[in-house]
Amino acid sequence: MLAPYAASSPPTAFWAALDTAQRAALRAAARPKTFPVRAPLVYQGDESDHVIVLERGWAKVTSATEEGHDVVLAVRGPGDLIAESAVLGGRPRAATVTALSPIRSLVVPAARFTGFLDAHQDVWMLVTGTFVQRMDDADRRLTANVTSRGPQRLAMLLVDLAERSVQHVPPAPDGSIEIGPPLSQEELGSWMDASRETVARALNGLRREGLIRTGRRRITVADLPRLREFAKEAD
Asked: Where does the record place the Cyclic nucleotide-binding domain (predicted)?
């Protein structure tokens, strides 16, 4: 079983890992599309006829339970590839992806995307590696939900989001990092399998420790090294 938390550099986003020629070829196969806040990019259960590359903006990945509740599974950001597993697996989409902020994207029809992969064999390995990384991340998250307390689980999420956010927006002069995706307490709770009340208490505790600052749908990590150490603390 994977460790519930392991400090490591965040993986390079799909788009950033492509070279100039590969980006040009994929852009030529795509059409640009924008999505406003709260707009769905893809729906769970739909046919898989295209993939999406996020150029700008953040989105949440959710899955509907049998009881009708939406569970947050992941957050995707600039440069990430969306809906590729359903296209390559030839199956309906397993989750809904919804814009958390205004999004600019490239939409690539399924046939053109697979043709692009056939013409650029090294990108096949990149896509496979991305899939494996996401499976590992999901396994770590599930393990943490069982073995770690609420404050540590929240700290793990915030460390991950801060490390990803700083790849796109530099830290403030004081070293603080504003987290890119504007997640509500309910969304954070769904992602870390905790109630809104648990998230609120954990946020208050992290604020008292001077690790974060918060506003409405805004979290700023004030001290990433200390937050990372807090996330690794045992029960």
From this structure: 14-134
